[in-house]
Amino acid sequence: MMLEQAGQVLQKYFGYHEFRPGQDQIIASLLKGHDTVAIMPTGAGKSVCFQVPALLLPGVTLVVSPLISLMKDQVDGLNSQGIPATFINSALAGTEVRRRLYDISAGRYKLVYIAPERLETEAFQAALQRLNISMVAIDEAHCVSQWGHDFRPSFRNIRPFIERLKVRPVLGAFTATATNEVKTDIAALLSLVQPDVYVTGFDRPNLSFTVLRGENKQKFIMNYLQTNSRQSGIIYAATRKEVDGLYELLLKRGVSAGRYHAGLSDEERAQQQERFLYDDIRVMVATNAFGMGIDKSNVRYVLHYNMPKNMESYYQEAGRSGRDGLPGECILLFGAQDTLLQKFLIDKSVEDPVRKHHELRKLQLMVDYCHTPECLRQYILRYFGDTAAASECGNCGNCDNAGELVDITLDAQKVFSCVYRLRERFGVTVIADVLKGSKNKKVQQLGLDRLPTYGLFAQRTIPEIKALIQRLVATQYLNFTEGEYPVVKLTAQALAVLKNEASVWQKETTQRKLEADDDLFE
Ligand code: ADP
Ligand code: ZN
Fold first, then answer.
1. Low-confidence ranges of the chain (pLDDT < 50)
2. ipTM value of the model?
């Protein structure tokens, strides 16, 4: 019933025929009076989730938003759709503020946008106390958390303000940030009462995802650009130096390329960005500095020359392809050095030990993405907590991979027993050395060449063995300890396999190539 009405409002005011997945649940939850946390990526259609209930609830909905510059546009947009909305921010004169408050209290508006800073003034708070507020929608709610990337102290005013209201409105918190820390903070610091949490809209069905390990990255990119020479795309690299190196290489080979990173002058950056937007150049080689707020719809591919530091960054960058809804290709070129580089960058930039631990954990989940044999889209959706994750997507490197499911129990047992014999005290390199039967100094000094698992994989290359270990980490048979020298441990799953109580089946990969040629510009 409620949803039926909501559907009518959606059609009447917004002109849409149906809700996107998740929108209906969020709206129903708010209409039932449940505090609600909605985690949706940008562009997924979050506004409708509070605007529709605002029109159905009695009284007014307060929308707290930090994006002051967008407020007027949003309100103008609503007004043109016939929705009575207004905003109050510091750009307005005192008399205008008073006039609007009067009109609000006279019931002339259903939606009122305010900036959180406004709540700092006592007079303003007092004026709001007199209104009949049914719902408070908090946009960019992660700003309340110090764990987010965008902490704003003014968000800490929201909770005391709500607590002072005589009638407690229903609260809706909206954000694109889905980490557990942020979710917990949002609930606690905004004083939500047993909120329903919905994570939705993360799937981008028109994007395909692929991870390539052990490619010659340069060769791959040259080939790729040749076969996609008419299309526009972005290549992300981890450092300025790598951007410059790749950019120069592309120019030398006659590719119409631009570059973008924080080491360039403002002027050059603006110019490069402009040329890309207007299709003067086809390929942008860039660090993660590129892309904030650019909205180019016809980006057909995003290649990652290096693995980024976490899944949030990866998905955001890869998501810049296919904005127009047409197919977009997202390919990540993984090299073992990428992990070391990201570790190094985290070490250098993060001091707080708790935060460092957190960043390293996120990095490991990124590395796992690069090694998982399962559907990459499912991995992504699960990472963001999106419950809409269906079965295998059929549109990612692992789903497309024609490889059969094979029983790799024996190989896995060899790895596990080696880890076991090493008493779970060593990292990937030593384990791989022992399995390979390497004669290096460390192995000999420690007498590891006398272990029964020594040389079990003598026929394989070290990169192959390491990739197998990483894959067993990605599928939770093994895990790493924290710290500078991560040690590999067995999980309960692995112990069951060692005891022959379980077997390991994984999709055969076609990639057994070596991880060579990675250090291109050294
Ligand atoms: P954000 O989540 O970034 O705030 P918006 O609320 O601005 O996203 O919505 C993104 C786009 O999706 C807008 O153009 C909006 O009109 C559109 N949209 C939202 N809901 C629907 C729907 N149910 N059907 C079709 N389009 C929708
Ligand atoms: Zn898939």
1. 510-522
2. 0.97
